[in-house]
């Protein structure tokens, strides 16, 4: 595998690891306003990445190939939303608010929190993988700089996500070392999903616009279903809205400037 591609798919995992390491430097419980700001920031980054890094290239590829421009984007987006809805329904997990979802299980609260964040990270790994798969296939609609912009943007939003998972685990009485480990492991699905996608490049190329939109739909599902509701939970505050604005703007600048 090309060194640039390998480095690119590992960047988001580094973001999760560094965020999880905050458990060694912060108090036992994260300030609620900080948590809301970080959730909002992650939401803004994911929304912007879905638009500029995934949906727009999908539409441009369809136009270039002479197909109906909006069809792959629409179909892929809805399939991505449906896929995450299915995973969300079947996988036992717990929101930061304490609400349980998925099938009934006897898992510990800490395990269900890790499963929730792991579920979030699947579409992010797919998004990075499909963009670098396009690079590997020589697709001119995706630049190496643009792929790295997506990886960096996801790594930036993974930093607070890593802290958001490791800090509550510490609050549950788990040691700092184990909280860090669990937070880090929740992000390991990203490079795994990316590598699998790249290894299937020969199969991916003909349906690349659909897969880009699929990843976008999956990411938007996570934002709408998980991140924003948790960011807006009581006590209500505008800090999460500000976080969305900052995250969206930063990711947009990264993608336009580097893409």
From TrEMBL:
GO molecular function (one): zinc ion transmembrane transporter activity
One term under GO cellular component: plasma membrane
The keyword Transcription appears for this protein: no
One Pfam family from the record: Zip
Localization: Cell membrane
UniProt topology in membrane: Multi-pass membrane protein
Family stated for the protein in its record: Belongs to the ZIP transporter (TC 2.A.5) family.
Keywords linked to the UniProt accession: Cell membrane, Membrane, Transmembrane, Transmembrane helix, Zinc
Name under which the protein is recorded: Zinc transporter, ZIP family
Organism of this sequence: Faecalicatena contorta
Transmembrane feature ranges: 6-25, 37-56, 68-91, 112-135, 141-159, 180-201, 207-224, 236-258
């Amino acid at each position: 595998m090309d060194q640039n591609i390998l480095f690119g798919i590992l960047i988001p995992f580094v973001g999760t690891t560094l965020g999880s390491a905050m458990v060694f430097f912060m108090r036992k419980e994260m300030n609620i306003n900080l948590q809301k700001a970080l959730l909002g920031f992650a939401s803004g980054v994911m929304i912007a990445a879905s638009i500029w890094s995934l949906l727009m290239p999908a539409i441009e590829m369809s136009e270039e190939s002479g197909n109906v421009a909006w069809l792959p984007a629409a179909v892929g987006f809805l399939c991505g939303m449906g896929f995450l809805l299915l995973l969300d329904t079947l996988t036992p997990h717990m929101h930061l608010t304490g609400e349980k979802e998925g099938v009934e299980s006897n898992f510990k609260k800490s395990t269900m929190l890790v499963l929730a964040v792991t579920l979030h990270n699947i579409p992010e790994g797919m998004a990075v993988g499909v963009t670098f798969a396009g690079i590997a296939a020589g697709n001119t609609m995706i630049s190496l700089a643009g792929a790295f912009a997506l990886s960096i943007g996801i790594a930036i939003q993974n930093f607070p996500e890593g802290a958001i998972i490791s800090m509550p685990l510490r609050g549950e009485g788990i040691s700092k070392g184990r909280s860090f480990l669990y937070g880090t492991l929740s992000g390991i699905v990203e490079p795994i999903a990316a590598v699998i996608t790249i290894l299937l490049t020969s199969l991916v190329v003909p349906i690349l616009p659909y897969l880009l939109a699929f990843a976008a739909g999956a990411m938007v599902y996570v934002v709408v279903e998980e991140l924003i509701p948790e960011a807006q939970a009581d006590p209500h505050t505008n800090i999460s809205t500000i976080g969305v604005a900052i995250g969206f703007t930063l990711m947009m600048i990264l993608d336009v400037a580097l893409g």
